Amino acid sequence: MASRSPDQNTQTIRQMAGLALQRLQAGRFPEAEVTYRKILDADPEHSEALHFLGVIALQTGRAEEAAHLIERAIHLTPEDANALNNLGQAYESLERWDDAAGVYRRVLQCVPDHDAALNNLGNILAGKGEFAQAIQCYQRALEVNKTDPDIFSNLGDALLEQGLPGDAVAPYREALRLHPGFFEVHVSLGTALREQGLLDEAIASYRTALTLRPESAETHTSLGNALHTKGLLDAAVASHRTALGLKPDYANAYNNLGNALKDQGLLDEAVEHYRRGLAIKPDFVVMHYNLGATLHNLGKLEDAIGHYQKALEIRPDYARAGKSLLFTLLNLPGCSPQQLFTEHLRIAENQTQGITRLTSPFANDANPNRRLRVGYLSSDFWAHSVGMNVLPLLSCHDKTQFEVFCYADVPAPDSITGRFRATANHWRAITGKSDAAVAQAIRTDEIDILVCLAGHFDGNRPLVCAHRAAPVQVSFHDGATSGLEEMDYWLSDGFLHPPDTAEQFTEDLRRLPVFYQYSPIEGTPPVGPPPTDEAGFITFASFNNPAKVNADVIGLWAKVLKSVPGSKVLLKYKNWYDQESLRGRVREGFAACGIEAGRIRFEGESPTLTDLLARYGDVDIALDPFPFNGATTTFQALWMGVPVVSLAGDTFISRAAGSMLHHAGLGDLAAGTPEDYVARAQGLATDLERLRTLRAGLRDRMAASKLCDAPTYALSVEAAYREMWQKWCAANTGTNR
Q1: Does domain 11-226 have CATH number 1.25.40.10?
Q2: Which of 13, 21, 96, 162 could bond to 91 as cystine, CB 3.0-4.6 Å?
Q3: Over the stretch 604-634, which tens digit does the pLDDT of each residue have?
């Protein structure tokens, strides 16, 4: 038989290669592999066969073999961009990330607009957290190929990870235009929308994703989170329960269900689910934080501190856990001013370790008398106690002298949010933006004075100030020092911080004539006579957060009850006293002090503020807790004609009620010692004529006091701002600032 000529062999190999490629493209990998191996038998250095055998190996889960085969092919054809790109994918399968990135860069040296290599390199960079470079790669890829939904999706993911959810929406929508059934993108788009507070659109996106993949537990709990943020708690709970039905060991769903139950006031049930989640994932840092917050609300302060400390042990820079640890310490009896100051400094130092302070010179005009730009930074621009205390100020600002900016982290706005927007010259929604991005926006707006509201509470953002966002930075309505070197002033008053205050702070104090400010409460129930006139016994009460009702408070209240025979105490806060563990803790505390259970009354939630205020109709005297006094609760009680007895301590947070009593002309009800506290309460309880007189006249007294004089209050705050600004101008005129 005659042998084939070289030309015939070449022709045969070419035909075999075409057949193998057809089989490969059709997904018939075993047949294609057989054919390519026959080619290699005939020509061991056939680079195409080596390359595509490597591709088949990669597609069938043999990454090590794939890398070896494609490396041999590239040795023969070093500038084959497609082979290099596939080698990079083989390296990725082997988790050889740096090698993969190097190969993709070689591809781009050969073919600078190789969209697949750009996309793949972007994925490697994103996986390493180098999102800015990844975004550049994706954008370059899209200049070449605008039809690949994966590239748009990857760009959106990188923008979302970089803290730019608003920028991520457009590429996600383009990916869905190209591929409407792209499940993962519907989910990611929902997340980007939720992080911007666009809750209705986020919910719709998650629900569309679930029509494509209803068995996705992850998407059910993401939907639950969006429903939760919107305030649809029953629906949120149902979504999280569905997720757990699909995936019983899903720790995230336990955490999210716990959050929704907590906000429903079902604290005991929330604790149970957090503990179940931590049994699955013991190092779940956010769940330790959430469990700590719920235990705090139940008044189990030591246990709460333990979980915050565990969260910080796992992630030392976890700002929310640090803030909440400090918040809990403010509630803890026996924590000295020195201890509080030391802890605030320690937490501030930990939280600011990775922050790069803005160092560019301020562009602000150092004219001491010009109209000032004042920015208010807060998560409380809604029907929140801090928000309601600040709204009178913003409503009365002199807009000819002060241009007001609100930087609002309010994912679920309400009608009060609308009132805040109406008072501001400029409204900046910052939900989903990083602290660094917010600080830069404040710089861009050329804010002169930045006022950080209630920094250690709720979702507030004091670390924006650590970037040095504005020339003058002021802490307002926080419970203690910020601990930040960059916070210049802390607003207070002469009662909260007397000249001999023992409290320590990093800021300069600026004492206002009066600190607290409230609008008269409209549509409130009328004030009737003291309920003791009909009941025949005195009813003491506290409508404060149960976290403030610690063992020392219970002990002192027990002495008050003993000093007034037949008296009772009513405890009420949302629906939290429905929790059996909380009732049990309080009953046991009183029992240990000799007070029988029948003298303690618990009450559940009042649906509206009017309903809540109406409950003061059954209260003769309000008892203020310590060391964390009531503020809004104190004002509400006084407005309803109920006198409040308070114990003034040696810190801002322990003198809040005393400050209000002082400015309402009731300074004698702010006791200086526990013994005096009991004596003041007993004295009121036995002086029924004074109780009747106070009850009849307290509302008018409050309305006429400095506590309800917003125009005068605004002038005093503006005078403080002007003085701060003039001081900055004097120090910075003629410098680079």
Answers
A1: yes
A2: 96
A3: 999 999 999 999 999 999 999 999 999 999 9
